[in-house]
Design a protein that fits this description.
There is one protein chain. The chain is α/β, with parallel strands linked by helices. The chain has two domains: 4-69, no CATH class; 75-179, Rossmann fold (3-Layer(aba) Sandwich). The chain contains nine helices and five strands. It has a five-stranded mixed sheet with strand order 1-2-5-3-4. The longest helix is centred in the first third of the chain and has 16 residues, at 29-44.
Length: 180
């Protein structure tokens, strides 16, 4: 279970209690579990192994956020300056996100401006943290022409460096450390 999924636990426990004591009569526990997954997917899940949808049209949360980012994103006035200072000191700057590239790119553009990619040496999306720290999942090249944006498998940090590319999907901390 992922970090964000853990918030469902109190709701699930409460509903199971209501079903068992008869307060909720028209649903079985299995029907509720299916409905919860479907609601969650329809509201928040804009990607899976097969494809990546445009997040800005999904559910009610993302469209509102795209329309009014200032209501959802806290300004970070010193972040760009800090990242530039670190780059000047020859530090490797990387971004890891559990989100897919489309959402990450939008969020970074809103936060840091259209040149946000210049601030990072490496951008890792769909990292599946905390599994990122514990597994040996390979990286995949970012391929905007694939429905799931997942290109060729990369399991060698030297290949990542030689490619000249900045954006990769999934991966693991061990390979990242070797890359750095």
């Amino acid at each position: 279970m992922g970090y964000f999924e853990s918030t469902k636990i109190p709701v699930i426990c409460q509903v199971i209690h209501f079903i068992k004591n008869g307060t909720i009569k028209d649903k079985t526990i299995e029907e509720f579990a299916y409905n919860l997954d479907e609601i969650t997917y329809n509201q928040f899940c804009y990607f899976n192994e097969e494809k990546v949808d445009y997040f800005g049209e999904l559910g009610s949360f993302y469209p509102n956020m795209v329309k009014n980012p200032e209501r959802f994103i806290i300004p970070q006035p010193n972040l760009k300056e800090t990242l530039l200072a670190l780059k000047t000191c020859k530090k490797k700057i990387f971004l890891t996100s559990n989100s897919h590239f489309s959402y990450t790119a939008w969020l970074m553009e809103v936060t840091l401006g259209p040149d946000w990619m210049d601030l990072f040496d490496l951008v890792l999306c769909n990292c599946k943290k905390p599994l990122f720290q514990r597994t040996e999942n390979p990286f995949f090249r970012f391929d905007p022409n694939m429905p799931n944006l997942k290109g060729r498998l990369v399991d060698n940090p030297e290949e990542m460096k030689l490619s000249g590319e900045k954006v990769f999907l999934e991966g693991n901390a061990r390979l990242l450390t070797k890359y750095l």
